[in-house]
Amino acid sequence: SVTPPSLHDCTLLRRRPLRPLMKFGRVLQLRAIPEWRESYIGYKRFKRLLKRLPTAQSSGSFSPTASLSLREPSELEAPLLSGPYAEVEALFFAALDDDLRRVNEVSVAETESIETSVTLATGGEALLSQEEVAALYCRLAKLRSFMSLNATAVKKILKKFDKNMAGTGREPQLPSVMKRLEAEPFSVCRRRADGMAVELERAMPPDKVPRLRQLAQDALKRAGGGRESRPNVLPLALSLAAGLVVALAPLEAFEQADRPEAQRCLGVLVATVGLWLSEAVPFFATALLVPVLAVASGAVPPKLVHKTGELEQAPDIAKRVLNSMFNAVILLVLSSLVAARVVARCQLELRLAAALQERLRHQAGLFLL
Predict the structure, then answer these.
(1) Which of the residues 56, 64, 178, 319 has an alpha carbon 20 to 30 A from that of 224?
(2) 32: Cβ–Cβ under 8 A, 6 or more apart, which residues?
């Protein structure tokens, strides 16, 4: 008999951690299936929404400003709390409903499509070969990973919501909302997918099941699930090789003009475009490679040094190229961006506004000034 696979075995989420203490938003980004990337829960968007809440705690009851599917009817008659809390709460659950709708659409469509194929694979006549069953199992693993990640995203963002609402007199929303999520179509599809995974494994010889799960793991890695941002060696090598061929090939137009630097510059351009199109390395790494390739390939012509009357050497060329890319103005801009990020991260503007409001609550004119 075949042991029914657990959720971690079947969706292949019990893999080596991507990085110690990696934030869930990053995990979601790395493990998202590319063809469904736009249908995942907008985890980072919800985090930004919760950051709009002031740091000072209030009291009172909450309710959304509109009828939201994840709320009890009795809650819709509760009085609204003035201020940003009620606004953020209404936007939060409205956005959650919209994201769940997209998750449900993908889950239902894919589950029904896979279910038809599973019937062919597990029927009495076994109309599918073992290779086709393995491909179907890999497809099912992607779907289960999609639904599992979205369920985890909902749970985690609701925990953050309850944490931000702590001390306001509002009951935690996580238990009640998670209970209602059990009736959502994608939750029903998760249970159906669990059963289909068991059926597919039973349709295979017992000694083939470990190999089947390994194939599904490999399929998830190729699809983007669980892979880190590592260089793709083959596109990287091909892009650099193409640039090298263009830079060194005997092109008549450049030979007649006696401009070898121009041809090398074209080679750098070809290599850079290849890296961008293939995404062999992250975009920021490609951008940083441009000056390195330009100097290493000799695409930057040397200038005459007035003091010595000699042409620049490679270290002098490299220093000139890098100095042109990083100067005091760029440092000022980057410093401003870092300072703005620190202010937003620590919510210093909200803390300052709350402190001024506390001190000047009875002096509206002075507060406006």
Answers:
(1) 178
(2) 40, 149, 224, 225
Element (H, E) at 106: helix 84-122
Distance between CA atoms of residues 227 and 282, nearest Å? 13
Contact 296, 322 (CB under 8 A): no
Closest-CA residue to 261 (of 303, 310, 294, 290):
294
Under a CB-based contact definition with an 8 Å cutoff, are residues 306 and 298 in contact? no
Where do runs of H (alpha helix) occur along 165-232?
174-181, 185-202, 209-223
Q: What does the block give as tokens for 7?
A: 């959720």
If we measure between CA atoms, which residue out of 245, 249, 242 comes closest to residue 277? 242
Q: Taking Cα atoms as reference points, which of 113, 72, 104, 118 lies closest to residue 187?
A: 104
Q: What is the pTM of this model?
A: 0.54
d(CA 216, CA 212): 6
Largest Cα separation within the chain, whole Å, is 89
Cα distance between residue 203 and residue 201, in whole Å: 5
Please answer whether residues 107 and 142 qualify as being in contact, where contact means their C-beta atoms are separated by less than 8 angstroms: no
Tokens of 292: 């390195």
The per-residue pLDDT string of the chain (369 residues; one tens digit each, 9 = 90 and over) reads 444 444 434 444 444 444 445 688 888 888 888 888 888 998 888 888 887 776 434 433 333 333 334 444 333 333 333 456 777 788 888 888 999 999 999 999 999 988 888 887 776 566 677 888 888 888 888 999 999 999 999 999 988 888 887 766 677 888 888 888 888 888 899 899 989 888 888 888 888 888 888 888 888 877 764 444 455 788 888 988 998 888 888 887 777 777 788 888 898 999 999 998 888 888 888 888 888 888 888 888 888 776 777 777 878 888 888 777 777 888 888 899 999 888 887 778 777 877 777 777 777 777 776
